[in-house]
Amino acid sequence: MNNSFFDKKLMSEAVKASFVKLNPKVQWGNPVMFVTWLGAVVVTLITVRLMISGHTFGFELQIALWLWFTVLFANFSEALAEGRGKAQAESLRNARSNSVARVLKNGKESSLHAQDLRKGDIVVCESGDVIPGDGEVIEGIATVDESAITGESAPVIRESGGDRSAVTGGTRVISDKILVRITADPGQSFLDRMISLVEGAKRQKTPNEIALGILLIALTVVFLFGVTTLKYFAEYSAKAANQDLSNIVTVPVLIALLVCLIPTTIGGLLSAIGISGMDRLVRKNVIAKSGRAVEAAGDIDVLMLDKTGTITLGNRMASAFYPADGVSEQMLAEASQLASLSDETPEGRSIVVLAKQKFALRAEKLEPHLAEFVPFTAQTRMSGVNIKTDNGVRALRKGAGDAIEKYVAGLDGKYPESVRQAAENVARKGGTPLVVCEGNKVLGVIYLKDIVKGGIRERFAELRKMGIRTVMVTGDNPLTAAAIAAEAGVDDYIAQATPETKLSRIREEQGRGHLVAMTGDGTNDAPALAQADVGVAMNTGTQAAREAGNMVDLDSNPTKLIEIVETGKQLLMTRGALTTFSVANDVAKYFAIIPAMFAGLYAVSGGHGPLAKLNVMGLHSAQSAVLSAVIFNALIIILLVPLALRGVEYRAMGANAILKRNILNYGVGGLIAPFIGIKVIDLIIVALGVVS
Asked: Taking a C-beta distance cutoff of 8 angstroms, is the pair 578, 643 a contact?
C-alpha cells in the first residue's frame, strides 16, 4: 500500500470522513472540539438571523466558516490516521482465510467453512492447504509459508510439543501434514485483532490520554468562564469610560476568542497521534492488545532481553579444540566429530566442519550399522555415539562440563584439572565450553563461540541515555554470561535463568518502582510475560505465551523489543511536543488578540487607549485581530497533521533532555509562531479588503 500522506485515494476518503464526523454524537467524544462545534453552530445561526433581518453579516459569516474549518481540519487529521490503517487492514483481509476446513471429529473428517470453526475444533492441514484459523499444532511437523502475514518469504517449521507450535490463520502449509487445534473463535483471531487495531475501531484511550483529556477539559472550562465574564467586564469598563463596545464584544467575537484560547490544536490532533502511534507499531508487524501496552512501552525503564537471538546471533560456532594432557588435538577433533555426526544443530554441524577443516577428517571409516547415536536430552545434557569395534564399544560423549564430570565419575574416571581450567577460560571469553570424553577418559574441550550482534552495544548505549537499564537473560553459566554481558554492554545479567528467576526478577524490579519489558515464546515464559508491564510474545511460540503477553511479534524477532520501546517513546514524545506547542500557542494568541480588541478603551478624543501599547503586533483592528486569530487557529491544525502522523524525530535522550527540547523547540516555537502567523494573515486580509 502507499504510505504517503498525500495519496489521492487516501486524501479523498479522509475529506469525506471529515464531513461524516460532524455528527454531534462523534464530536461529543472530543470535548474540546465539541465546544468548537457548538460555537460554529451558534455563530452560523446568528449569521443566518442577520441575513434574514437584512443586517450586514460578512464578518460573522467568515468567523462561522473558519470555525467549521477548524472542526473539519481536526476531523481530517483523525480520518487520515484512520484511513492509513484501513488501507492496511484491506490487505490483511485479503490474507484472512475463507477456505473450507477439514474438521476431525471422532476419527472422521468433515468439511466446514473456516468462519464456522470454534475454539477447540481439530482440523487437518496438508501440503497446499490454507490453515483456516489460529491454532496450535498438536500432531506432526510441517513447513509453513507465513508471507501473507509477516511479509517474510522464507518458510518456517511448525511442530507439536515444542515452542514453535503456534500457527496463524491465513498461512499456507507447504509440506507434510499437521493436526491443528483451533484456539480462537471467529472474530477473535490475531488477524482480526490486527485489523481492528489498524482501523482504530476498537482503540481505547490510554491512561495518559485520559489524563491529558481531563486537563484539556479543565482548561476549556476555565477559558469558557473567562470569556463569558469578559463581556460583563467590557460592558462595565465601557460604561465607566462612556464608550460603546457593543459592536466589538459580540457573541460571535467571544466565541471566536474562546475557540482561539482553548487548546484546540492538541485537542484536534490528540486522537490522530494515538492512532498513528499504534499504526507505526503495526507496520513493524507487532500486534498490541491495547493502546495501554503501546504507551507503557514508552515508559519502560528496564529491558529484559534473551541473550540468544537478541544480543548474540544465536548460532554458536565451534572455533577451537583444547585437548587434555596426553591427548593430541587431532584425537580430540576426531572424537568430537564422531560424537556430532547425528547432531543437526548449527553447533553440531560446526564441530564436524571444524574437524574437517583442521585435520581433513571425514568419518569415512564409520559403518552406519555399527553406530548407535545417543541424542541430547534435558536430563543428561549430553549427546554422542556408541561405536562397535573389534575391541569392544567406543562410547563417545560431548556435553556440559558438569554433566560429563558426573558421567565420568559414574564410570570410575577422573575429571582432569586442566580440562576444568580450559572450560573456565572458554567461559571467561564469552564462549560455551563442550567437554568430550571416551568412556571414563576426558579428552578435552570444544570452544563454541557466541557472536555478539554488530551494533548492539551502540543500541544499548542509546537506551542508557534514555534512562533504560538493560538486563541480559541467559541459561549460560555465570562466567560465560559475564563475558557476553561485558562485550555487549548490558547493565546487568541473569545467568542460568529459569522461569522462576525471571518472574522473581521482574517482581523485584517492579517493587522498586520500575516498568519492565521482556520477550518470550515458551509456555514456561507465560508467567513472566503476564507479570511484565510489556510482554512481547513471539508468534512462533506457544498459545500460552501468546495469550500471556500484551503484544505479539508476528516476525518472532526478539530484537524488535528495542524497536517497540522506541515506538512507545516516540508516541509519548510526539504527544508531549504538540501539547507544549498548543499551550504556548494559546498563551501567545491571548496576548495578540486582547490588546487589539480593547485598543480603543479609555481612549481620549477617539484615539487609542492605554491598552493600545500592548498591541505590539500593530494589528489593524479588533475585527481583523479576531479573524486573523481564527484563521491561524484553523490552519495550524492542518499544518501539524503530518507531524502528528509521522511523529516527532526520535532521539535517544533522557526525560530531562526531552523536556528541555520540547520547551525550546515547541514551547518557544509555539509562543513565536502565532505572533508571526497572525500578523501575516492580518496584513493579507486587510490588503484584500476582507475587513474594514
From this structure: yes
The 3-state secondary structure of 179-245 reads EEEECCCCCCCHHHHHHHHHHCCCCCCCHHHHHHHHHHHHHHHHHHHHHHHHHHHHHHHHHHCCCCC
Q: How many CB atoms lie within 10 A of CB 692?
A: 10
Integer CA distances (angstroms), 79 to 20, 201, 639, in order: 10, 12, 15
Separation in Å, CA 161 to CA 37, 136, 140, 463, 547: 58, 9, 9, 36, 17
**Would you give the DSSP letter of residue 130?**
B
pTM: 0.69
Residue at grid coordinates 491495547 = 290
Catalytic site residue 306? yes
Q: What is the pLDDT of residues 351-399, one digit of tens each?
A: 999 999 999 888 766 777 888 998 888 678 899 999 998 888 999 999 9
Cell numbers that stand for 459 in this block: 543500541
Q: Is residue 168 a contact partner of residue 95, using CB atoms and an 8 Å limit?
A: no
Is residue 563 a contact partner of residue 546, using CB atoms and an 8 Å limit? no
Cα–Cα distances in Å, from 587 out to 528, 616, 623, 673? Answer: 47, 15, 19, 11
SS3 label, residue 11: helix
- Which of 306, 450, 525, 533 is catalytic? The answer is 306
Task: Please count the other Cβ atoms lying within 10 Å of the Cβ belonging to residue 440.
Answer: 15
Give the three cell numbers for residue 358. Answer: 583442521
234-293 pLDDT tens trace:
888 878 778 777 777 888 989 998 999 899 999 888 888 877 777 788 778 887 777 678
How far apart, in Å, are the Cα atoms of 81 and each of 74, 209, 267? 11, 17, 15
